[in-house]
Amino acid sequence: MRKILFLSLFSIVGFSCTEKKEVQIAIQNDSSFDRSNEIVEVAMSSVTEKLQLNDTATFIIIDAQGQQVPYQITYDGKIIFPANVKANMESEYVIKPGTPEQFPTMTTGKQYPERVDDIAWENDKIAFRTYGPALQATGERAFGYDIWVKSVSDLVVEDRYAGELNPETKAKIAELKKTDSKAADELYKSVSYHVDHGNGLDCYKVGPTLGGGTAALMVNDSIIYPYCYKSFEILDNGPLRFTVKLEYNPLTVKGDSNIVETRIISLDAGTQLNKTTVSYSNLKENTPIVAGIVLHEPADVCRYVASADKGYIGYADPTDNVNNNNGIIYVGAVFPQALNDAKPVFYSEKEKTNERGGADGQLLAISEYTPDSDFVYYWGAGWSKYGFDTPESWFSYLEEAAAAIQQPLSVTLVK
């Protein structure tokens, strides 16, 4: 696992060491359940002001047991770190001068131009990817987020791409296909990320749907599907938070062909869910917005929850090869703002076969987008082979996540 010393960003800010100073941080949990390793935020400007930081020294964060905790300075000027707070209790942390310990990198991501411009990212729990302009240029219709399950806390995505896309191995497979198709297939399976080599795999099917939780505008009950991103900027890249900004090609909405979507997606260490902020420029009137999860089973066997009141949707997906012992992929989305509705929508046989790549339907959460605003929600996944034994355990996770978002930890700088 990669290690980081947390030194590179601190050449910008530091401590005046002529006088020893520290800042105490009180974190209050007013909810009825424990909050474990939840990432909290403190404004960097508040800390620099209280500690009179200069541009040379480093600092550390200490918990109540005197142990250092990892932290990161984000692109938008925040110090983030994991906090543990019991239900209806308070925990204290201290920021003071010191040399940071080495901690493992828990989140990372990058673009893979060698795989049609995928952007893939992960934390210690789960991995995701979204598709880029090179894929769109091929004509393949893949609109939503993809999910890569994992069963280890190690970072695995880069190695998966390296195995799948190794030029020498691909050339050898191509040669073997001419003389020994069985050997070619065995070699392919030995490197493919569609096979579980002990840490998980890609066994989720997106197709021309919203995939694992994509948001989209909706007009007259018709979803205006976004295609692949046009441009991107990685804003944070670990150790505790990955953030990417995506901009999309203009959409046509109610006859206006200049509606541009922007997304900012963040994944923190220790969580199953991405925080995503969606905005649309040039939109002139309120428009329904949905976030959806593709359904790969007919209505009579689908295992899902959809609660507009509690603000979440969830689904137990059978994976793209139910006979291959790939387990169950649990998918979900959580919404801080009020939902107008949350429900499954199943396709007709014609739409299922001709338009949606065989998917049975989508589980939709429906809200309202106001021009010049941000639509913020959380989406993500889990796996039956890594932390979630039953659909009920996943649905309980989503319900607790929704409650936690509605009642965030209170972070106060004491002195």
Automatic annotation (TrEMBL):
<dbReference type="InterPro" id="IPR011013">
    <property type="entry name" value="Gal_mutarotase_sf_dom"/>
</dbReference>
<dbReference type="GO" id="GO:0005975">
    <property type="term" value="P:carbohydrate metabolic process"/>
</dbReference>
<dbReference type="Pfam" id="PF16153">
    <property type="entry name" value="DUF4861"/>
</dbReference>
<dbReference type="GO" id="GO:0003824">
    <property type="term" value="F:catalytic activity"/>
</dbReference>
<protein>
    <submittedName>
        <fullName>DUF4861 domain-containing protein</fullName>
    </submittedName>
</protein>
<dbReference type="InterPro" id="IPR032342">
    <property type="entry name" value="DUF4861"/>
</dbReference>
<dbReference type="GO" id="GO:0030246">
    <property type="term" value="F:carbohydrate binding"/>
</dbReference>
